[in-house]
Design brief:
- The structure is a single chain.
- This protein is mainly β.
- The chain has a single domain, classed as Methylamine Dehydrogenase, Chain H (7 Propeller).
- It is 6% helix and 43% strand.
- The protein has helices spanning 5-14, 108-116, 321-329; strands spanning 23-24, 43-47, 49-53, 61-68, 72-73, 76-77, 86-94, 97-104, 146-150, 153-157, 164-166, 173-175, 193-194, 200-206, 209-215, 221-228, 239-240, 244-249, 252-254, 265-267, 273-279, 282-291, 295-304, 310-317, 334-335, 342-348, 354-367, 379-384, 390-395, 401-405, 410-419, 429-437, 442-449, 459-462, 472-477.
- It is globular, with a radius of gyration of 21 Å.
- The chain starts with a helix and ends with a strand.
- It binds fe (ii) ion.
- Residues 1, 145, 190-191, 236-237, 297-298, 471-472 line the site of fe (ii) ion.
Length: 478
């Protein structure tokens, strides 16, 4: 979830509002719109204007994105970027045209806060009102972190509670429905892993106890088991291979429960970053690896080589400063120039050794070809964090790095791989994503050809308005 400080600052610079960092910024900067309330009614479906190139033949489907879109009622504000209400955006591409629509997830949290016209529910970084009816995880569920397709449903994901089910066409909320009655309200991470055959794996985390969810491609529960990882680490993302579940256990651990939740965690830089590897067919078969202390939100994905070596890429920072301080201060429109995340490759050897391969490439929101979830691959796309607003593509096999700079007035968000119909190569795909164009004060949709990222987008469409920054999305090809 880490939109980089440098990226944000670059957008400020374009707005003429940047001072030496750290600095406080006026509420009316274009950047601040990325963390301002979206219209309560959302955005009705409207055509986007093609401003560059043309839609590639065969590109048909919808990009769905989710992220916090409502932060305050008057002076009553969330305490952290991660606590805004889920705002789901749909970018539909058909017949060479793009259309945009967006709606808030209609959650119990949003309903009661709209009724009271105040932020009252506790959250990840929000203390909440003493009389808030926070009697279950789903009462606090902001449904604001990601989205996934499961059968005919679109699920808005949070990490502390259940998926919220939406209509993928209208974005109307159908509410939460437990996978099984005795599992109601159990946590379900915002980073599920979908095997090439469609099977869905996910985790739900409560201290050292982790639910391992296994669902069919249609989202029907196949299995749910609780394991103990032996560590009370914050787990936001994880990875799978064909045979194994890879659970990184970073040294940011919950040792007590205080409000807000983010204050319950302690950074233990003297502790290693552990990685738990479980056999998909037998969770009692486990191995533990150790790497130096580091903090992460996101992995690219993992794969396993013939000799048993497991590789997974992730974006790491030296500590948890972003989540404990910076993402909290952003709500007050105060941006620090903190440490950027670096894309690294963790290598887990069959003999128990582990090592980290550094790239010196700074960035976040790593994305990979989802046709290859858990399988060997070459590529990882990142939102590059070099001070310009750049989409980057790392090739692990050759070491090559391609990139495209959008320019300082653009704030780049996650770009997703979308397969070209009937093609199977990793480069037979497009990268589809969104930027906030501060100069045009508009949200833009871009399509890149993965084979030629450095040439820039092959097509760009622009909305008449800016939508808030989002976190993650999914591409649903037609
Ligand atoms: Fe995330």
């Amino acid at each position: 979830m880490n939109v980089s400080r440098r990226t944000l600052l670059a957008s400020f610079a374009a707005a003429g509002a940047m001072a030496a960092a750290p600095a406080a910024f006026a509420a009316d900067t274009p950047w601040s719109l990325g963390l301002e309330n979206a219209p309560a009614e959302g955005f009705p479906e409207a055509a986007m204007r093609l401003v560059h190139g043309r839609a590639p033949a065969g590109l048909e489907g919808a990009l769905y994105r989710n992220g916090p879109g409502w932060f305050r009622y008057g002076a009553s504000a969330t305490g952290h970027w991660f606590d805004g209400d889920g705002f789901i955006q749909r970018f539909a591409i058909a017949d060479g045209r793009a259309r945009h629509s967006a709606r808030f997830a209609d959650t119990p949290k949003r309903r009661i806060e709209q009724q009271r016209q105040a932020i009252i529910m506790p959250g990840f970084g929000t203390r909440g009102a003493p009389d808030a009816p926070a009697d279950s995880a789903d009462a606090m569920n902001a449904a604001n972190t990601s989205v996934m397709m499961a059968g005919d449903e679109l699920w808005a994901l949070w990490e502390g509670g259940s998926p919220t089910r939406l209509d993928p066409n209208t974005l109307e909320t159908h509410g939460v429905r437990p996978f099984r009655e005795d599992l109601a309200g159990m946590p379900f991470l915002a980073h599920p892993k979908v095997e090439p055959n469609g099977r869905i794996w996910n985790l739900g985390v409560n201290g050292s106890r982790v639910v391992i969810w296994r669902l069919s491609a249609n989202g029907v529960l196949e299995d749910a088991q609780v394991i103990d990882t032996g560590a009370r680490s914050y787990i936001h993302d994880w990875a799978v291979t064909e045979r194994h579940l890879i659970i990184p256990l970073q040294p940011w651990t919950i040792d007590r429960f205080v409000a807000p939740i983010v204050d319950s965690y302690t950074w233990r830089g003297d502790q290693p970053f552990r990685v738990l590897v479980l056999d998909k067919n037998d969770y009692s078969s486990r191995r533990m690896y150790e790497l130096p202390a580091m903090f992460f939100f996101h992995t690219g994905d993992a794969w396993e080589e013939n000799d048993g070596t497991i590789r997974f890429d992730l974006c790491v920072t030296p500590d948890a400063h972003f989540v404990t301080e910076e993402a909290r201060n952003m709500i007050n429109r105060h941006v620090e120039d903190g440490a950027s995340a670096e894309l690294v490759m963790a290598v887990l050897h069959a003999d128990g050794r582990a090592e980290l391969q550094r790239t010196r490439r700074l960035g976040e929101f790593p994305q990979t070809d989802r046709r290859r979830q858990g399988l060997a691959r070459d590529l990882t796309a990142i939102v590059d964090d070099r001070g310009d607003n750049i989409l980057g593509l790392m090739n692990w096999r050759t070491g090559a790095y391609e990139s495209f700079a959008f320019g300082p007035h653009q704030m780049v968000q996650e770009h997703l791989f979308a397969a070209k119909p009937g093609r199977t190569g990793e480069r037979d795909a497009w990268l589809i994503g969104v930027t906030l164009n501060a100069r045009a004060r508009a949200t833009e949709l871009h399509v890149f050809d993965v084979a030629r990222v450095s040439d820039g987008p092959v097509a760009t469409w622009r909305s008449r308005y800016m939508a808030p920054l989002g976190f993650h999305g999914t591409w649903a090809g037609a």
